[in-house]
Amino acid sequence: MIYVLLSVACSVLVSVLLKLARRFEVDVGQAIAWNYVAAGALTALLLQPSLDTLRAPGAPWLALVALGVLLPTIFLALAASVRHAGIVRSDAAQRLSLLLSLLAAFVLFGERLTAFKALGIALGLLALLGMVWRSGQASAERGAAGWLYPLAVFVGFGVIDILFKRVAQAGVPLGASLQAMFALALLVAFALQLWRRARGQTRFTARNALAGLLLGLANFGNILFYLRGHRALPQHPALVFASMNLGVVALGAVVGLLLFRERLSRLNLAGVALALLAIGVIASG
Fold this sequence. Notes:
Blueprint: H1 2-20, H2 28-47, H3 61-85, H4 87-96, H5 98-107, H6 115-132, H7 136-142, H8 145-169, H9 174-198, H10 206-232, H11 237-258, H12 266-284
Helix pairs in contact: 1-3, 1-10, 1-11, 2-3, 2-9, 2-10, 3-4, 3-8, 3-9, 4-6, 4-8, 4-11, 4-12, 5-8, 6-12, 11-12
């Protein structure tokens, strides 16, 4: 379980770094671009994936290219969500994106819908509604960003997970798919930053590069320790899955409330509690 705990810590650390970016005058777009330099290099160094499957005629390049575009753009949405809605809602929305993956499993991949999973989906949708709901005063203070960005995170990470399943169905090992996606995401992310630079909206600095490399270390650590957790407990995938998702929501809530004094209404807190329950029910199913 130590690997799962480390994965949880790295996942929440990503949100903390995004939250601290403005305080330390870090350009989030640049940091996200440099993050893929670190993540791609660490994937090549530590996972040492074989890329032969990517040269095969049936390689799912359409899904891989879609992931290469979505990863940096949804990362930007996550950063905006953390800034406008806070770590608690953003981490919970990211983890609840598994609801879309489950729905796709039933509709696209032929999985059988069980009563437990149906209950988990219903609870998850209620949880999402409770988390993004804002009072009139809160809406006036934050505007639509307070609920639009968490919804974008929810939908975006759900679509990413569905594309991951498509790539896995094509027989591409995870290491090779990660290497391809990180390389494509790096190109997309730096293209966006070069476009911003040409418009005079940003300039490249060592501070942003260092922040991005640290972000990439946490991002890759999340993936690496999650994989190690599954390898250490091969007979208990549901335990790893539930521990990871519940751990991120719980630790994210503690960090957001205690470290950043994030204000949540009773309905928002009930939504977070329902998110924990929904993930537990889905894992049990």
